[in-house]
C-alpha cells in the first residue's frame, strides 16, 4: 500500500485537536448511560455532531428507548465506505463522573468506550476539515444494547439489517497491542437440573429419589472430559475449543435434598460456522445424562458471536497497518481477539471485515476506568489515516 503524501499526512495529524477530543469525551462520560438506558447520551452525541455541521440520523433500530446515532460523510468521489462504530452504553455499576488529571481521563465509559467514540468523532472532523479523503466516505454509528447480560445487541443487528454498514468497520474497544485477525465463538450457558417433588430432609428421602447435586457433578465431569478431544480442535492465533464452568449452585441447607441444581459457564469454539453443531453436541450430552439420572435438564444459551477469521492480506487490514505504522512507526503484530464484541457480530452477520482497535486503557467493567488523552489522540489519527488508505479504492472487496 502506497504511503500518504507527507504534506497530507502532516495536515491530517495536526488536524486532530486534543482539546476538542477531550471535550467530546468528557461530555459523553458526563451523561450516565447504563445498558438499555443510553438515550440521553445518544442525544448528547447527536447534538455534538449536529453542532459540528453534520446531518445526524436517529434510526430507532429496534430500541425506541434509545434511538441510535448515524452520520454519513462522502468525499463525492468513487470509493469504499469505512464505518466507525461504537456502543454508548456502559455496564451497570455506580456512575463515576468525568475527571481529567495529569493527562489521564477517568469516569464511566472512559475506556469502554466513550473515549473511543470521541476519538473516531475527532477523526471524522479532521477528514472533513482537511478534505483529504481521496474517495468513498465515512459512516459513523453509535448505539445502545451492547453490554451483557443487560443487552442483547439487538440495536447493532437492526442497524446492520437496515443497511447501516460500510465496506469495512473499525471498532474502538480497548485492544491496542495486536491486530485481531481471529476470534473464538462463544456460548454462555445456563443449565438447570431438576427433579419432581419438593425439597426434603436427607434422611426422609424416598428410595430412588433423583439427586440433582450428583447429577450436576456428573454434568461438570462430562463437560470437562470433553476438553480432552476439544483441545485437538485448533486454529491459528486463538487456541482451541473449550468448555468452562464458573458457577455451580444447589441447595438451601446442608442436610436438605434440593430439587434444582444450576450450572453456568461458557463453550468456546475456533471454527467459523460451527455454532449449530456445537450446540447440538452439547444438548446430546445433557440428554444422555438426564436419561441416566432420571432428572430433567434444561439448557439455555446466549450466543454473543460466532468464531471468525480475517484475511491478513485484505485491503482493510493493509490500510490499517499502513496507518498504524505512519502514526506509531510500526504495524501491529497479528493476534487473537480474547473477547466477543460488535466486530464479531458484524463479521458473522454480513461477512464484512471489522477490526477491533482502540486505546490502551484500563479498568473496563470496573469503577476505575481510565485512558490517557495521548492514547485517544493516537486512535483518532490511526482511524483518520486508515480511512484515507481504505476509502480511496473503488473495489468492494475488503
Written overview of the protein:
The strands form six sheets. Strands 1-2-6-3-7-19 form a six-stranded mixed beta sheet, sandwiched between helices. Strands 13-15-9-16 form a four-stranded antiparallel beta sheet. It is built from ten helices and 20 strands. Strand 11 and strand 12 form a beta hairpin. The chain has two domains: 6-182 and 307-391, Zn peptidases (Aminopeptidase), CATH 3.40.630.10; 185-305, Alpha-Beta Plaits (2-Layer Sandwich). With 398 residues, the protein is of the alpha+beta class. Helix 1 packs across helix 4 (114-130), helix 2 (18-29) packs antiparallel against helix 3 (39-51) and helix 2 runs antiparallel to helix 4. 35% of the residues lie in helices and 24% in strands. The mean pLDDT is 96. It has helices at residues 6-15, 18-29, 39-51, 114-130, 154-161, 212-230, 275-293, 315-328, 342-350, 373-391; strands spanning 56-57, 69-74, 81-87, 99-101, 104-106, 137-143, 168-171, 179-183, 185-194, 200-201, 234-235, 239-240, 242-250, 256-257, 260-269, 296-305, 308-309, 334-337, 354-356, 370-372. It is elongated, with a radius of gyration of 24 Å.
The fold-level CATH name of the largest domain is Aminopeptidase
Spatial shape: elongated
Distance between the termini: 14 Å
Fraction of residues in H or I helices: 25-40%
Strand order of the main beta sheet, please?
1-2-6-3-7-19
**What is the H/E string?**
HHHEEEEEHEHEEEEHEEEEEHEEHEHEEH
Structural domains: how many: 2
Summing up helix and strand content along with how strands pair, one would put the structural category as: alpha+beta
Radius of gyration: 24 Å
pLDDT < 50 runs, ≥5 residues: none
Q: Can you identify the CATH class of the largest domain?
A: Alpha Beta
The chain-level mean pLDDT equals 96
Under the CATH scheme, the architecture of the largest domain is 3-Layer(aba) Sandwich
Strand content: 15-25%
- Overall number of strands: 20
Main sheet properties:
6 strands, mixed
Q: What is the name of the CATH superfamily of the largest domain?
A: Zn peptidases
How many distinct helices?
A: 10
